[in-house]
Structures
1.
Amino acid sequence: MKNSIAYFNGPVQNGAFTLAERPGKATGMRLAEALNALLGLAPVPHLWNTVTLTGDVRQRRAADRTTVGRLQREKEALVAKYAPGPTPACGLRTDMNHQVVRLAWEMTSGLLADGTLTVRDLPVRLCTRCGHMTGAGTAGCCRSCGHGSSRVARRSLLVFDRTAHGPVLGRDDVHAAGARAPSHLFTIAHHVPRLLVLSRTRSHGVDLAPFGLEGMVLDPRAGLHVAVLAAAGEFGAGRPVMTVTENAAADVAAYGAPFRRHGPMRLRYLLHGKIPYETAASDRLYEVHRAQAVKDLFTDWYLPLCAARERAGISAVRIPALLKLLRRAHLARPTTPPGDLLTDLRHRVAAGDMRWVTDVRALGCALSDREDTSGPTGPTRGAP
């Protein structure tokens, strides 16, 4: 296993949208692709989360559910995400890929053996119609079937007691040299429940029956970390970094805490903000700044890089200034990137130091290297 950095997108939920309609959903993919290219790495697969309750409901309600299975439906939905273009040449992986399932079983078995995870008999609420586990508190309508009543029952559950683990999110879990520590995320993680239930009632997911939990699957918030580790193992990266928004990190970090390490691999997060694509997509913006030639470069490459610097989100009012900075760097880019500057840039990229994206000289070097390695169309051919 190489002790190398490689970036992977946090698995995106396979919901009812296309990347053309919601380009912000591709930010993590584009960011990982851009950073890996600057490190001289081959493109990594795009990662998707298919273990969703909405997917269960979609499958149950489908008129062709008896002839089209869940795996096929999820695959068809993923391919449609990239329309009207093809899926990326680097491939797609989901949190139900067979390597992910195998690794999840291996990790869960080890975590049960060392006491990090336990199986406990706990009270829960179950929908009286479909048996979906609705949670321990007062229940409303079942999110799985819509039924309005539930009953209290006891079930064996896969549990993570975070108090025996230490902090579920710390400074070392965030890959961001030179950036301010996201103290608000540490606070959120500190206040999650003491006992975290990692087994869920789903019809699709990593089956926990081998651990005595029939009818339950691994919580997808844990499973998406396993998906990144599995992809990293396939790629030969010992230090995988998952690109993720701050909101997503706040939601998944505690549940993924036991699943961020496997053997020599340790997963960290690279946080990024959201991009105001409704502003960045305006044709008038590029006419005013005479920047039509760099429109795709700006939306598909530069803005995702800027999002990793502006983790709280890029303000719409910043878009014209960022476009002008990119155009200026593009015009001034060297024919061949200076060796010392390129070496320094790669060190900063590997360390997660994103301050360089607003340095015209460093940005020009990155643009020149991008063209050297991928040609004038850049490394995003075939990407969303």
2.
Amino acid sequence: MPPTPDAAPEVGAGARRAVQWSLGLLTAMLLVPLFGPTWGLSSLILAPAAAAAMITALVMLRGVRLTGLKVVLAIGIGASAIALMYGLGLVILHDQVQALTDCQANAITQTARQVCLDEYEQSYLDLLEEWGLTVPTGLAP
């Protein structure tokens, strides 16, 4: 009789709960930017919470052979870092983004929307210059 492979360790209720929370927070974090810049600020709370839940889930899943889930959780941690940078960018550029949102709400034509976008680009470039930063000429709009 051939030897039987070791049974995979059972996933506990705590690990399942951690995975559910982490995937729920990841979904919320990825959907929030679709609601606009005002809701995008909530990524400052959702991103660290999602990353903490995913790290907890990965720790609780040690020794379990769920490679696909572990890869998704690891990618989610990276997405959380990007979402946190997005939220910080919204905080830094809050006035410029709010002015763009207000301008585009009143813009009727495509030309007016382009004027709003041009004003936004100039305002954030001016902000960068105030901080002593410049955009390389090849990347400048």
3.
Amino acid sequence: MNSVVYFNGPVQNGDFTFAERPGKAAGIRLAEALNGLLGLDAVPHLWNTVTLAGDLRHRRAAARDTVGRQQREQEALAAKYAPGRTPRGGLRTDADHQVACLAREMTRGLLADGTLTVRDLPVRLCTRCGYMAGAGTARDCRSCGHGGARVARRPLLVFDRTAHGPVLGRDDVHAAGARPPSHLFTIAHHAPQLLVLSRTRDRGVDLAPLGLEGMVLDPRAGLHVAVLAAAREFGAVRPVMTVTENAAANVAAYGAPFRRHGPMRLRYALHGKIPYETAVSDRLYEVHRAQAVKDLFTDWYLPLCAARERAGISAVRIPALLKLLRRAHLARPTTPPGDLLADLRHRVAAGDMRWVTDVRALACALADREDTSGLMGPTRGAP
């Protein structure tokens, strides 16, 4: 089996295309860039389709009776990409059969060892559609808009984290040489002690086989299972999920019980946001005479820089980063030196991203990228 393999944190299947919102592809591009440097085959792009917004879109669709939810999600996913640019590694979602099977397998094991339990708890249910509202939810039902709710007791899948230590620690972050994200540890520490992991959704990992009729696994947990399912398919022991700090803060506590399975151990590779509104400006490349590296800069180098600058890349840094890439591109050797390439791959596998601003290491990475057939530009199915 492979050791470290990078997968994107599943992207929510919202109403956008990558052409309109290139920042949505940052995690996908980062995973592809890192795996490429490790000499690995393409991995699937992962998507989050277990959402209330997706439920609502499908219910309101004019062709609901003739187009099923699965087909609608697949059509929406295909539309995210430029025509003819289907990812070479394929697409996977958090509602796929393999994910559901693995999620139930893991949940049964976690119930058996006491990590998870099923408890009868009071909940607020919409009196019209039965949607289960969370604490602090607005008066009107988020699912159907109805204003009436009732309190009832129902069995729920819960994770009581009081007996299981921190839900996020230094060892959960894959970033050798980087400062630990202490603020994320603090946020995770303040998550509720009792986390409900079963939800009312139209789509998702059905928990009925576990005695929880009408409920699915919380998608924040399901995202982690989707990565593990893809990793198992790929033969990866140490899957690393690319994710923004904000996303990690939102999902880490709910995914804590689902980061290990057998020999697999999932970690997070944090990355910041990219100011694409600045980075795609044609004027930027005219001024710096860098039109030849525009796609390389936006699709490959900036995602790598975002993994180094985890709080986000400042727009004022874009010209300097472009000049650095252009300089390294001009200096790239015909064949990357073996010792430098080996060191680079060791650092990539360890999550050490300090090399991205080292001109010599960057030139080596560019040479290796060109030397590996098909890796230049977006020709391997990049969005």
